[in-house]
Amino acid sequence: MGLNKKSVNDINVKGKRVLVRCDFNVPLKDGEITDDTRIKAALPTIQKLIDDGGKVILCSHLGKVKNGPNEGESLAPVAKRLSEKLGKAVNFVSDYNVTGEAATQAVAAMKEGDVVLLQNTRFRGKEETKNGEAFSKELADLCDAYVCDAFGSSHRAHASVAGVTDVVRAKGGECAVGYLMQKEIDFLGNAVENPVSPFVAILGGAKVADKLNVIANLLEKCDTLIIGGGMAYTFLKAKGYEIGTSLVDEEKLDYCKEMMEKAEKLGKKLLLPVDTTIASAFPSPIDAEIEVSVVSADAIPADKMGLDIGTETAKMYAEAVKSAKTVVWNGPMGVFENPILAKGTIAVAKSLAETDATTIIGGGDSAAAVNQLGFADKMSHISTGGGASLEFLEGKELPGVAAADDK
Ligand code: ATP
Q1: Is 172 assigned a catalytic role?
Q2: I need a surface site. Which of 44, 49, 308, 399 has the fewest CB within 10 A?
């Protein structure tokens, strides 16, 4: 299965230089960190390596770095906050080159339990994002072992996620995952590859096209696949229903038919809305007060737009969740940014909050919705990576996961 990966519990780092790829991609405003969730989330792995006597060298990207290295995207604020959280010095190597003379010297001066933070890996541009060999080697030269704890970046084969591990392994070093990565692998990996059934998967969000492989893969793995959100209307149209001015992807009608046939053949339940909340137009601004009504899914007037699942559908979906032992949810059921159109999403979130099943939220908008509704602590796991969690649900092997040694 390839998910039985070495973690920080399985490697011996005493006296060794350990390079840790973190996700310190925090939001900044005027040079101040506005949300340090990602820094806090990285602490257990860092602390474990400090306690084990490792020389802990941290690296991360921050922002998209479109116009080359710049102070606005420096990791300096992260170093400061991290030092406060750890209660010890973090030696920040501010050199825009990330590796090189300054980094080498800082690492050479390290004692057991010391922490060094390198500069933003995206300051190396394409060398980082195109998995450049030279940069991979320079990173690997700084360390004896490597730990990846950046789940949100693990679907990208970048030098600091993938390339570096080849060089570390070639020189006999171990590559492991940190606690954050381990948790994501345990929850998302097990849910998809080894679910306790009944396994109910709920997919929403805007477009069918964004989730083609997720739908196909989950249909194989789950017992019931629930479809909501904008993507539901392409399915309804594929069934031959009038969908008015609702969001539709004409090119994916055949695909939706195929999926409905596939579900039938596999004996899986594919649940689609039986009723829907409609309005005359998409709300503008998005949270504008609009007039809505609920109609049967096969009775959408030609001049109306479906913007949320209807009340009967919400009940039906909540009922399906009740019978599940594992639930994975990605994507809102409607235009949840508008309170009038958030009812379907709230109903689904509530049903997940109330069940004893293992509940997994696949990042992005659904994670935001769950947080916003105050249900976060009722879920078994909320993924920290939108894109990465979707690729997991597609059944793809993530470069950051593949790069860790098997146990
Ligand atoms: P992420 O990829 O960040 O995880 P997501 O998968 O949760 O996102 P998206 O595919 O980005 O979801 O779609 C979410 C968006 O879809 C929301 O902004 C929501 O308003 C919109 N949406 C949901 N239902 C509809 C609908 N019926 N018509 C139009 N837009 C919709």
Answers
A1: no
A2: 44
- CA-based Rg of the chain, rounded to a whole angstrom? 23
Please determine, for residue 247, whether its predicted confidence score (pLDDT) is greater than 70.
Answer: yes
The Cα–Cα gap between 339 and 45 comes to 39
Q: Which band of pLDDT confidence, cut at 50, 70 and 90, is reported for residue 100?
A: very high
Query: Do the bridges between strand 293-296 and strand 305-309 make them parallel or antiparallel, or are there none, so unpaired?
Result: unpaired
301-328 tens-digit pLDDT: 999 999 999 999 999 999 999 999 999 9
Residue 356: count other Cβ atoms within 10 Å of its Cβ.
Answer: 9
Name the pairing type of β-strands 305-309 and 55-59. unpaired
2 band by pLDDT with thresholds 50, 70 and 90: very low
CB atoms within 10 A of CB 154: 32
159 secondary structure, DSSP code:
I
Is 207 in the active site?
yes
Pick the catalytic residue from 6, 85, 137, 207.
207
Q: What is the pLDDT of residues 111-126, one digit of tens each?
A: 999 999 999 999 999 9
CA distance 280 to 296: 16
State whether the beta carbon of 229 lies less than 6 angstroms from ligand 1.
Answer: yes
Torsion of CA 363, 368, 370, 371, to 10 degrees: 120
Omega into 195 within 30° of 0, i.e. cis? no
Q: Does residue 398 contact residue 391 with C-beta atoms inside 8 Å?
A: yes
Cα 217 from Cα 286, distance rounded (Å) = 32
CA distance 366 to 348: 10
Sort residue 179 into left (φ over 0), alpha (ψ -120 to 50) or beta: alpha
Distances (CA, A) of 174 to 77, 160, 241, 397: 30, 15, 56, 20
Which atom of ligand 1 is nearest the CA belonging to 337? 20
**Rounded CA gap, 173 and 262, in Å?**
45
Mean pLDDT of the chain: 95
Q: Which residue has the tokens 């092997």?
A: 397
Task: Dump pLDDT digits (tens) for 337-361.
Answer: 999 999 999 999 999 999 999 999 9
Rounded to two decimals, the pTM is 0.86
Residue 133 to residue 158: CA distance in whole angstroms: 10
Distance CA(103)–CA(106), nearest Å, equals 5
